[in-house]
Amino acid sequence: MKIKLLLSLILGISLGASAELVEEWNFGDNGNFSSVTTHDYTTGDADDGVSNPTARHIGGTTTTASGYVGWDARATQGATLGTPAAGSSRLGSTGTAILNGYYGPSNFDGVPWAANAGALPAGYLTDGYYVASAAAGEIVDITLKVTDIDFDQTTGNSNNNANFSFRLWDKATGMTAGVANTYFLGLTVMDTYNSDRLQLALTSSNDTILSGGTGLTATKNRTRIGWLTPNNTLADSSDYEFGLSIDLAAGTWAAQINDDAEVTGTFDTSHLNGFDRYQTTFQQFSQGDYIDVDQISVNVIPEPASVSLIALAGGSIMMLRRRFAR
After folding, report:
1. pLDDT tens for residues 18-40?
2. Whole-model pTM?
3. Close Cβ partners of 33 (under 8 Å, ≥ 6 residues apart)
4. What is the phi-psi region of residue 201: left when phi exceeds 0, alpha when psi lies from -120 to 50, beta otherwise?
5. Does domain 19-301 have CATH number 1.10.3470?
6. Over the stretch 6-16, which tens digit does the pLDDT of each residue have?
7. Which residues pair with 99 in a beta bridge?
């Protein structure tokens, strides 16, 4: 019995160390607020554990910022466009003008905001500035769960193609070495121009995606992971779980739609040394376009060697236990 309990403890520690949930939004249950992190909105300061911590808004820590206000507007307007499935929030636009909402970048909880190159901490590449970094050999997983998409208000219009994206940013590297001051990588659900067909794409800053997927653009900022609908179909009520895994040190990515085969590729590691920000976009939404979102989550997996060491230590303990039990 003692051996079983010890094995369970070791296994629990190993699994616990294998991934860290750094952020998660469960929209149908929690609205636009995090289920993981908090912030003190009464003073505008980060939660000090004493004042008034509340769930952190996906739009960031400033209630009047465009991200905070914009996300609330998408939820308010989306709610007038019908009832989503249980556990989802309908996020959409009811305005007569074409909506282009760029909400963020917002810094992850605990990451200092760097307004310019001079504000970056010394040794930021290795001192724990990022929520995940190449220097630490970490892998980042994004999960996006969607239950209904309706972008059919723009059918036949090649100049107006709705898309929704969630991106992870390396703002710091962009500030110190980037031409555009912005490096990012993420998932996009989009209308495919003249074919009016929904797809899931990997999107990035220019020249960041190096290979993988189908139809990588000349500017290397988008490649298709998979089709969601046939031609001339921009509404889909399927349940989707989209996943993206980013190995920061290896410079590789792997994306998946539900249980389909993974699509893999590479990215420029000089653009992404770690992740310090996230951003969501609602681009080219026409009146009545919406997407129902269940969940967005970001997990950080430590360097495989770290997990192996824990497992090895556990195995050693078990061997010693058997030896001295004889």
Report:
1. 789 999 999 999 999 999 999 88
2. 0.86
3. 25, 54, 55, 56, 57, 58
4. beta
5. no
6. 334 333 444 44
7. 285
